[in-house]
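Schema walk-through. Below, the input block comes first and the output block second. Nothing else is stored per chain. Lengths vary across the set, and this one has 290 residues.
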Amino acid sequence: MNPADLDHAILAHVNAKARALEDVLGSDVIFYSGQIHPQITRPFRNFIEEVENASTRAENILTIVLRSPGGSAETTERMVSVVRHHYGTVNFIVPDYAMSAGTIFCMSGDRIYMDYSSALGPIDPQVLSSDGSGYVAALGYLDKVSEITAKAVLTPADVVFLRSMDLGKLALYEQAKNLSISLLKKWLVAYKFKDWVEHRTTNPGSPVTIEEKEARAEEIAAALSDNRRWHMHGRALGIERLLELRLDIDDYSRNKDLMVAIREYNDLLTGYADRQNMPFYLHSHHTENL
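--- output ---
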């Protein structure tokens, strides 16, 4: 078979699986895989516009199947503005992983779907390296500076480390941390907690105030940004750990129809894209190519 014909056949099969998942969920479905980088802002905007214009569904719901190692919180904020301009409800499915800025992106959703093998990550903010070649995690630097400056007596190694730090970069790291926490709090209250109107455990049936929603959001944001709690930037946080933070997750592990629909779409698409060595791609059955 001609390789081009094989690619066409595989993508036709992927598109069929995307349509099947849309029917199960009752929403438009897109797939986002890769780093969240400033350069994708315009392509992402154009892609969402194309999907919405081509859709014939009446629900005004978008479900984003997300697979991301993280990236820029600022870019995440712009992407959320785009999807919320076009859709009234935005949900996320994480079949594999969504780390750092990917986790922040998920927190802008009305619902987050995961199964027992899925993972989010700590919201360690990432900033572009000096040469622009990639991202560096900020909290490690901030934690180390905080640890050293708390000492009564500095060692020679401590002095060398502090002298090597650029104060401008430290300020940038602090700003990135504050932005990540701020976005998380804002989006959790606006979207994830919008239907949380009554207490379910403490004082069951009593109304939930906006202050209580803000306090819960702050607790979650603080926990997810606590590097000392998770010990490493790439720590995988499964459903059980997220529930410990009192973050509601839609667990589809025992919903066979939904799990099959998600995995058939996710596994086929990611398997094909990984073999093609594609570090970033967007997919919808409404678009012609990845």
